[in-house]
Every structure is written in C-alpha cells, then in structure tokens.
Predict the structure.
Amino acid sequence: MTNDALAKSPEDRLAALKAKSQSRVKELEEKLGHRLTSPRSAPTVFLLIDCSHSMDMNGPAKFEAAKRGAIRFCQEARDKNYLIGLISFAERGVCLREPSPYGDDIQSRVTSLTSGPYTNMADAISLATQKLESRKGQRAMCLVTDGQPFTKTGEDCDATLRTAVSAKGVGIEILAIGTDDADKSFLDKIVTSKELAIHVDREHLEAGISSMARLLPG
C-alpha cells in the first residue's frame, strides 16, 4: 500500500472504492446494452447441466448439443436481465459459476465440461437452492438431463423429489428439459408446473434448452 493510500481516511478509501465500482458498472452496462439491476433485487437463474456418462455414451453429439444449448440459454437469460449461475452434476453437484451478469467466462466454462459417473440430481438441486434461497427478486433453476437420478447407491428419485419440494417451498421456480431417453413423468413432478417440463428428441436438444429461457419468470 502506498503512503498516499495510508494517509487517506477510511471514509476517503470507501468513497474511492464506491466510485471505482460505479465506473465498472457503467462499463458493463455499455458493453451489455442495458442497465444492470441491483444484485439484491435482480432476477437470478441457475442452469443445472447433467454431465453423466450417458450424455456422451454414444458419441459426443448429445453432450455437445447440450453445451451449445446452454450457451444460447445464458444469452437469452441475459436479455431478460438475469444474473446467471452454472452447476454441473454427475457424481455430485458442482458450482461452476456464482450468479452474475453474462460474461465471456460462460462459454469457456460450458465448453470445458466433461462427463463423469452417476447422475446426482438431488445434490445439484440442493446446491442451487442453498445459493438461491437468500436472494431477492425472481429465482429459478433450469435442469437439463437425459435420464433419471442415479448415485452410488442406485436410483435416487425420492431424494430428488424431496429437494425439489424444498426448493419450490421457498418460492424457487423449477424448469426442466429432458431428452427422449429421460422420464417425462418424473420431470413433471420436479418442475413447478407441468408446462415448465420440456421433452425433446436429442436432435432438438440445443434449441430446446435455449427455449427454456423464454419460460423464465418475468
């Protein structure tokens, strides 16, 4: 720290930090083409991406389509002024990105995803709920999957449904999209309402994921 910085009072340093923050916000608004909502009241969405081995078991086409669709989803969520977070799930749920405005890091984080064993959907929903429940404004999570929950101990449908009920109980909207090999009736139970569960052929997965952004609240 410089002598000049040490000589400043706490109030002066706070004012300098505030001015720097406001300047950064202005730069982001100019780059994005719209005003940023206060983080406390901004709508927030987590995209939960199934990274189980089944997503690329018969070649990378389905997994790559899911990645492209995820990027398109984030672009459309940005246009609705959403803060965007990313969670992947295979053996467990992993937060890849805390909710924040759309940025260049989204594409690199999504394209670098790799598959792993199991489909721990409950862990992903629970993680998203923890990160969303204290936020203000609209809150949602969008689930992308090609199958049913499966952990080291076997099928885990009951645990997944319980975590979904907990999320909906604190006012979090749940949307889901499943491929033709996913259980549509199971997804209908996870989402907030049946029209928020989308079922598509794997050939249309990219477009289907993108279309979920249009169903986001607000």
The longest helix spans residues 10-32. The mean pLDDT is 89. The chain has eight helices and eight strands. The first strand starts at residue 44 and ends at 50.
